[in-house]
């Protein structure tokens, strides 16, 4: 019943384009159902895409300014939809709180938001809508680090050679010392030890949604990993109400984007993607609080930092297959971000375990670990076993099965559909035996 | 033999703290004495710490007109300085004050150790007196610069704006420190795509001028080479006033590169047919160095980035032989 009712609006939403939070998605769906406004909504939505794409693609400073006016018209359109959409949503779902009422209540200092509102705050848009909007929406050429790997200019090779020869080992040694620095690492037990309201599942929902935001704004992979790292580091020290968890997520992503991107999204863009649940002032206040807590130590190594090096080094001799390895490795590494339990593993352990599982997936009949990998990563396979099992479980959908942003992302052709590759269900015990010296 | 004067190393300072408080709070702790310059993103003041009388450099973030929160350049500089400040050849970040101004905007004060001059002023002073910097002094300064750059690169950071103005000095000790990391970047191995338009023009590497976005540590080495030449002659080596003029200036003096001296140059985005100049001898361009000095300079100014000598290898070059003796490693 409900499914059938949702089918048509979702189709319309797919045409409409950019993903928003669930509330905005419902609003857009309701608007699409009403004939006269459908065209208007579609025009507004389509107008957004070039601006967003331009934001991602343009060089910094001057060119960024003109794009802001282009993105603004979308918001009045969205706010115009508020009235009828809210009414429609109220009829459809009794537990949904009207946005205005929720806003008023959240402004109260003593107010503790109802669970449904809080859950809504970090729910990602419906899956089906995502899938359709992915196929329907404008897909500009990728400017991500992954693209750089896809077709590296020849000029890269000489620089690589020099880096490998002179500084790569220095840098790796330093990164390994950084990742164990208690000031740059999150606690692996903060949900139990520090948080009273935030749960591991809420964190997973947030991560899943942030993957979509990073896709939406075409952010490089490092930005996503740093974002999650800042979220975890903040939650390791500060207990947070669930109503602020999404704010922490977007403020962390704002910081990571400023640190990492050539042209970071604006604060307004991050408010928009939360369906304006938070004001710009709240966002910038949270930014300031996070920076204060992190003591501006923003450059901690992430899973991606190590994975990049491992894949490149391991596949020096087989250039042809590196692309599949890149995407499969990225897919598995992003899955590990969903799992709070993976925080107990060092980023380099996760990256090495990802190498193992990716190689296993590509060639199940060969032991994925070898002396070269052991030497390069510094890990014996027995040291990786627990993490390998955790990542393998994620790949087999044994954990976080309902959070599909990452699986959906890597179903796309541009990522070689790596999330659809058949996975060996059992890892042979012999693969976990340490290699003979 | 000239050696670097090593002052006794001070006790390791406590890690910089972050103090909450308004802009007013920060200024309660420090007395601004005079404005001494501008960094990548803000004004720099000479100031006195009221509690101790210590003289410091206070760097204040420039507030963007459209309030976007903390500027990316400030975030990068502070973050990277956290990784690098322990090296004696990188300027030390002593403290960080974060608060809000009257309009409620976030404002940052970075508190640095004070250095009384920079290499730009030092060179200009010698130029205006019509005197060369002594060869021994050039060597000591260059050795410190290479040590600082080797450390920064070894930590996985590109500076991307090395120039005399960003190299702070103490006149008495001839200590030299790298400063202004506002345009710096953590690098990855392998390199990935970076902003194209970075680096002050005169010290900008040819691969950047030719539009490469996948560049790495060699861009800083090129800057080191330009600084080396300037220390010897008191004049900038390649003073171009536009990107094209900068390229032409380099090509006129070092010869127009081709696929033999720089494989792949023809495929860089901004490459096209340039006038074919032949290289001039470095000894004519930069009179006043010995043979080892010219050999090092040549290696710093290699066209092909992969062949440009890394800073840590430069430290082993024969040119620094007598300086290394004094280095207590």
TrEMBL record, chain A:
<dbReference type="InterPro" id="IPR004367">
    <property type="entry name" value="Cyclin_C-dom"/>
</dbReference>
<feature type="compositionally biased region" description="Polar residues">
    <location>
        <begin position="105"/>
        <end position="120"/>
    </location>
</feature>
<feature type="domain" description="Cyclin-like">
    <location>
        <begin position="208"/>
        <end position="292"/>
    </location>
</feature>
<dbReference type="InterPro" id="IPR036915">
    <property type="entry name" value="Cyclin-like_sf"/>
</dbReference>
<dbReference type="InterPro" id="IPR006671">
    <property type="entry name" value="Cyclin_N"/>
</dbReference>
<dbReference type="InterPro" id="IPR013763">
    <property type="entry name" value="Cyclin-like_dom"/>
</dbReference>
<dbReference type="GO" id="GO:0044772">
    <property type="term" value="P:mitotic cell cycle phase transition"/>
</dbReference>
<dbReference type="Pfam" id="PF02984">
    <property type="entry name" value="Cyclin_C"/>
</dbReference>
<dbReference type="InterPro" id="IPR039361">
    <property type="entry name" value="Cyclin"/>
</dbReference>
<feature type="domain" description="Cyclin C-terminal">
    <location>
        <begin position="301"/>
        <end position="424"/>
    </location>
</feature>
<dbReference type="GO" id="GO:0016538">
    <property type="term" value="F:cyclin-dependent protein serine/threonine kinase regulator activity"/>
</dbReference>
<dbReference type="InterPro" id="IPR048258">
    <property type="entry name" value="Cyclins_cyclin-box"/>
</dbReference>
<keyword id="KW-0132">Cell division</keyword>
<feature type="region of interest" description="Disordered">
    <location>
        <begin position="52"/>
        <end position="139"/>
    </location>
</feature>
<dbReference type="InterPro" id="IPR046965">
    <property type="entry name" value="Cyclin_A/B-like"/>
</dbReference>
<feature type="domain" description="Cyclin-like">
    <location>
        <begin position="305"/>
        <end position="393"/>
    </location>
</feature>
<keyword id="KW-0195">Cyclin</keyword>
<protein>
    <submittedName>
        <fullName>Cyclin-A3-2</fullName>
    </submittedName>
</protein>
<comment type="similarity">
    <text>Belongs to the cyclin family. Cyclin AB subfamily.</text>
</comment>
<dbReference type="GO" id="GO:0051301">
    <property type="term" value="P:cell division"/>
</dbReference>
<feature type="compositionally biased region" description="Low complexity">
    <location>
        <begin position="76"/>
        <end position="88"/>
    </location>
</feature>
<dbReference type="Pfam" id="PF00134">
    <property type="entry name" value="Cyclin_N"/>
</dbReference>
UniProtKB/TrEMBL annotation, chain B:
<dbReference type="InterPro" id="IPR050108">
    <property type="entry name" value="CDK"/>
</dbReference>
<dbReference type="Pfam" id="PF00069">
    <property type="entry name" value="Pkinase"/>
</dbReference>
<dbReference type="GO" id="GO:0008353">
    <property type="term" value="F:RNA polymerase II CTD heptapeptide repeat kinase activity"/>
</dbReference>
<keyword id="KW-0132">Cell division</keyword>
<keyword id="KW-0418">Kinase</keyword>
<feature type="region of interest" description="Disordered">
    <location>
        <begin position="1"/>
        <end position="24"/>
    </location>
</feature>
<dbReference type="GO" id="GO:0010389">
    <property type="term" value="P:regulation of G2/M transition of mitotic cell cycle"/>
</dbReference>
<dbReference type="GO" id="GO:0005737">
    <property type="term" value="C:cytoplasm"/>
</dbReference>
<dbReference type="GO" id="GO:0030332">
    <property type="term" value="F:cyclin binding"/>
</dbReference>
<dbReference type="InterPro" id="IPR011009">
    <property type="entry name" value="Kinase-like_dom_sf"/>
</dbReference>
<dbReference type="GO" id="GO:0000307">
    <property type="term" value="C:cyclin-dependent protein kinase holoenzyme complex"/>
</dbReference>
<dbReference type="GO" id="GO:0007165">
    <property type="term" value="P:signal transduction"/>
</dbReference>
<dbReference type="InterPro" id="IPR017441">
    <property type="entry name" value="Protein_kinase_ATP_BS"/>
</dbReference>
<dbReference type="GO" id="GO:0005634">
    <property type="term" value="C:nucleus"/>
</dbReference>
<feature type="binding site">
    <location>
        <position position="59"/>
    </location>
    <ligand>
        <name>ATP</name>
    </ligand>
</feature>
<keyword id="KW-0067">ATP-binding</keyword>
<dbReference type="InterPro" id="IPR008271">
    <property type="entry name" value="Ser/Thr_kinase_AS"/>
</dbReference>
<dbReference type="GO" id="GO:0010468">
    <property type="term" value="P:regulation of gene expression"/>
</dbReference>
<dbReference type="InterPro" id="IPR000719">
    <property type="entry name" value="Prot_kinase_dom"/>
</dbReference>
<keyword id="KW-0547">Nucleotide-binding</keyword>
<keyword id="KW-0808">Transferase</keyword>
<feature type="domain" description="Protein kinase">
    <location>
        <begin position="30"/>
        <end position="320"/>
    </location>
</feature>
């Amino acid at each position: 019943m409900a499914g059938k009712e949702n089918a048509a609006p979702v189709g319309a939403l797919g045409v409409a384009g950019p993903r928003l939070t669930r509330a905005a998605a419902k609003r857009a769906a309701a608007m699409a159902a009403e004939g006269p406004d459908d065209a208007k909504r579609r025009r507004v939505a389509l107008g957004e895409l070039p601006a967003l794409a331009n934001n991602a693609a343009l060089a910094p400073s001057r060119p960024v300014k003109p794009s802001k006016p282009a993105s603004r018209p979308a918001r009045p359109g969205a706010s115009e939809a508020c009235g009828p959409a809210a009414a429609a949503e109220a009829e459809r779902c009794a537990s949904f709180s009207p946005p205005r009422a929720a806003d008023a209540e959240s402004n109260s200092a003593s107010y503790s938001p109802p669970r449904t509102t809080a859950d809504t705050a970090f729910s990602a848009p419906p899956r089906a809508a995502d899938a359709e909007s992915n196929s329907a929406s404008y897909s500009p050429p990728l400017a991500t680090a992954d693209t750089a790997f896809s077709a590296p200019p020849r000029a890269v090779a000489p620089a690589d050679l020099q880096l490998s020869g002179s500084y790569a080992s220095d840098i790796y040694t330093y990164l390994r010392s950084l990742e164990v620095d208690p000031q740059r690492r999150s606690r692996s037990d903060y949900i139990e030890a520090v948080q009273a309201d935030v749960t591991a599942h809420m964190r997973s929902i947030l991560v899943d949604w942030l993957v979509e935001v990073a896709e939406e704004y075409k952010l490089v992979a490092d930005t996503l990993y740093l974002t999650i790292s800042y979220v975890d580091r903040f939650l390791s020290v500060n207990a947070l109400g669930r109503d602020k968890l999404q704010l922490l997520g977007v403020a962390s992503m704002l910081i990571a984007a400023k640190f990492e991107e050539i042209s970071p999204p604006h604060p307004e863009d991050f408010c928009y993607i939360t369906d304006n649940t938070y004001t710009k002032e709240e966002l910038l206040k949270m930014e300031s609080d996070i920076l204060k807590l992190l003591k501006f130590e923003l450059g901690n190594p992430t899973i991606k930092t190590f994975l990049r090096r491992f894949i490149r080094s391991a596949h020096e001799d087989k250039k042809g297959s590196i692309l599949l390895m890149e995407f499969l490795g990225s897919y598995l590494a992003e899955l590990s971000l969903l799992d709070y339990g993976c925080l107990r593993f060092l980023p380099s352990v996760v990256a090495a375990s990802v190498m193992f599982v990716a190689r296993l997936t590509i060639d199940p009949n060969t032991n994925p670990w070898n002396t070269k990998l052991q030497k390069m990563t510094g890990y014996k396979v027995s040291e990786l076993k627990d993490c390998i099992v955790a990542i393998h479980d994620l790949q087999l959908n044994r954990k976080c099965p309902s959070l599909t942003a990452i699986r959906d992302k890597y179903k796309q052709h541009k990522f070689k559909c790596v999330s659809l590759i058949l996975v060996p269900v059992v890892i042979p015990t012999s693969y976990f035996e340490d290699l003979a010296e | 033999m000239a050696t670097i004067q090593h002052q006794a190393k001070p006790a390791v300072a406590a890690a910089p703290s972050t103090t909450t408080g308004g802009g007013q709070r920060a200024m309660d702790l420090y007395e601004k004495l005079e404005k001494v310059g501008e960094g990548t993103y803000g004004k720099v003041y000479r100031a006195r710490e009221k509690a101790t009388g210590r003289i410091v450099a206070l760097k204040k973030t420039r507030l963007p007109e459209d309030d976007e929160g903390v500027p990316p350049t400030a975030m990068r500089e502070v973050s990277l300085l956290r990784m690098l400040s322990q090296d004696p050849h990188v300027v030390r970040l002593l403290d960080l004050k974060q608060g809000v101004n009257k309009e409620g905007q976030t404002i940052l004060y970075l508190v640095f150790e004070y250095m009384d001059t920079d290499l730009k002023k030092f060179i200009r002073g010698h130029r205006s007196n019509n005197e060369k910097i002594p060869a021994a002094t050039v060597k000591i300064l260059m050795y410190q610069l290479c040590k600082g750059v080797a450390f920064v690169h070894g930590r996985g950071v590109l500076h991307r704006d090395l120039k005399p103005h960003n190299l702070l000095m103490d006149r008495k000790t001839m200590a030299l420190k790298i400063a202004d990391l506002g345009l710096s970047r953590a690098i990855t191995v392998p390199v990935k795509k970076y902003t194209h338009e970075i680096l002050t023009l005169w010290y900008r590497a040819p691969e950047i001028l030719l539009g490469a976005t996948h560049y790495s540590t060699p861009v800083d080495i090129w800057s080191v080479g330009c600084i080396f030449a300037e220390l010897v002659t008191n004049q900038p080596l390649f003073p171009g006033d536009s990107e094209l003029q900068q390229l032409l200036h380099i090509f006129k003096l070092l010869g127009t590169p081709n696929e033999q001296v720089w494989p792949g140059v023809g495929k860089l985005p901004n490459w096209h047919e340039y006038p074919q100049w032949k290289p001039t001898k470095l000894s004519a361009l930069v009179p006043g160095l010995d043979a080892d000095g010219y050999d090092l300079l040549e290696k710093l100014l290699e066209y092909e980035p992969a062949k440009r000598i890394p800073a840590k290898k430069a430290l082993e070059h024969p040119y620094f032989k007598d300086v290394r003796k004094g280095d207590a490693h």
